[in-house]
Design brief:
73% helix, mainly alpha
Length: 109
């Protein structure tokens, strides 16, 4: 393929003028220029993102690997209590909470 010379460029320009009109060509050229600027900025962002990803991967490879987490020991289950025993324990806890709340109210007064 040979490169475009001056005569070929003039023919292309003449065809564009005939197709779109002389008034529309500057507007189209601005639109193409904006599109190219946007395209260039987006490709630059993609390259920057790729560089950041490569640096992140290298930094992660340089860091020591974390030790595996040891499983926690689960305490042995307490023996099940009857409903009466559970009710008694709950009443004792409620009484302690009421006493604590009363003591705090006395301190505020």
């Amino acid at each position: 393929m040979s490169q475009l010379g001056v005569p070929e460029l003039l023919i292309i320009a003449l065809v564009l003028v005939l197709l779109f009109g002389a008034k529309k060509l500057p507007e189209m050229a601005r639109g193409v220029g904006r599109s190219l600027r946007i395209f260039k900025s987006e490709t630059a962002k993609l390259r920057d993102d790729d560089d950041e990803t490569a640096h992140t991967v290298q930094a992660q490879a340089a860091q020591p690997q974390p030790q595996p987490v040891q499983p926690q020991q689960i305490p042995a289950p307490q023996p099940t209590l009857s409903a009466e025993e559970q009710a008694r324990q709950l009443e004792e806890q409620a009484a302690r909470l009421r006493a604590g709340a009363a003591a705090q109210a006395d301190k505020r007064d």
